[in-house]
Structure to design on (381 residues):
């Protein structure tokens, strides 16, 4: 069996690949992804590097999202037709047994071509809201995997018989709860509580600016570990933040800034940090729940259908996290949220442990079951 995975939501795709490679080594993968996560800013995507570590072949495919202007719309239409043509070439050459999509606009041309060429399609939605791309992909998919039970009845999905509640695959190293050594680059000589700040591989300009404005205050009481995102044409986040920390004489063991945190190191911080500050992407939410790490969420304000806010509200309503809206975020409010988390840390951890979520240890096997059913039906035709 050969599974073709389009780039989009990367970490659940990596989690699925990890599981299948461990349990079904005869399965082959090919990953079709982006060179740039933000083409306009020329920000290199992390996809190729991460799948290469898993010995998965990477094929580049470009597709441009429209920003709303006429010029952007025209450019995206032309780009989309180029992506369709390239998708035909890829699928005809690779002859995958199935397309496994974890959402995202890059999957759309591949899914359309797969449908036209009668290649089975399995799609996954990790949030509590069906994203823009998945609203189309779900109409074309043979089987649908979801992580939130409310989608079992969502009117956006036309055929609920195709749906299965599977949960979200987590990367194998993230699932590790055994004793781990601290990262070799990390030292916490004063044994201060650790703040883990996560901006994704693209980074978050708003969170980075908030950290910069608050760093002197934060570093007086905490050790700050900041995953700030990869550089782009406008910003070199890690360099700018490191330069600022040196200028402000922040001790080197109080502030660590990295473009990306390796999975094993990230797992250690999930287990040893006191609090996380993060966007509210669905995959990060799942990892924080799994490791029961209290978090302050700064949801992306313009995410599709307010999905990041809804993800964060899922925890806040259960007393298992706090929301700090981006347009209200400043040093005083951040420090106030941190103090509140500090006071309620054990209560929040207990709330996180009591959340009834699909078991991430079973998610990949359940998705693989859907794939086997979809492929078997295709073979009987």
């Amino acid at each position: 069996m050969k599974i073709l995975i389009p780039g989009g939501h990367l970490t659940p795709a990596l989690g699925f690949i990890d599981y299948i490679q461990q349990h079904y080594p005869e399965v082959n993968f090919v990953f079709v992804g982006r060179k740039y996560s933000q083409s306009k800013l020329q920000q290199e995507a992390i996809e190729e590097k991460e799948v290469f570590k898993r010995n998965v072949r990477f094929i580049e495919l470009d597709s441009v999202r429209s920003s709303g202007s006429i010029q952007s719309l025209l450019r995206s239409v032309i780009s989309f037709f180029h992506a369709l043509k390239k998708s035909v070439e890829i699928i005809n050459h690779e002859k995958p047994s199935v397309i496994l999509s974890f959402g995202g606009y890059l999957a759309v041309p591949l899914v359309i071509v797969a449908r036209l060429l009668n290649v089975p399609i399995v799609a996954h939605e990790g949030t509590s809201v069906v994203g823009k791309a998945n609203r189309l992909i779900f109409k074309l998919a043979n089987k649908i995997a979801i992580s939130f039970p409310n989608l079992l009845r969502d009117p956006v999905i036309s055929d609920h018989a195709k749906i299965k509640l599977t949960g979200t695959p987590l990367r194998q190293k993230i699932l590790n709860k055994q004793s781990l050594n601290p990262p070799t680059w990390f030292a916490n000589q004063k044994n201060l509580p650790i703040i883990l700040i996560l901006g994704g591989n693209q980074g978050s300009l708003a969170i980075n600016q908030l950290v910069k404005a608050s760093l002197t205050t934060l570093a007086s009481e905490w050790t700050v570990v900041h995953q700030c995102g990869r550089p782009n044409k406008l910003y070199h986040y890690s360099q700018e933040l490191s330069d600022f920390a040196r200028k402000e004489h922040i001790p080197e063991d109080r502030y660590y800034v990295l473009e990306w945190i390796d999975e094993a190191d990230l797992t250690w911080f999930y287990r040893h940090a006191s609090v996380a500050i993060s966007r509210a992407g669905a995959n990060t939410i799942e990892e924080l729940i799994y490791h029961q790490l209290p978090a302050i969420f700064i949801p992306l304000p313009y995410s599709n259908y307010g999905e990041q806010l809804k993800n964060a509200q899922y925890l806040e309503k259960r007393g298992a996290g706090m929301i700090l809206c981006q347009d209200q975020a400043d040093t005083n409010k951040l420090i106030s949220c941190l103090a509140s988390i500090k006071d309620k840390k054990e209560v929040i951890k207990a709330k996180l442990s009591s959340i009834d979520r699909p078991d991430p240890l079973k998610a990949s096997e359940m998705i693989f079951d859907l794939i086997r059913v979809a492929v078997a039906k295709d073979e009987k035709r």
About this structure: The radius of gyration is 21 Å.
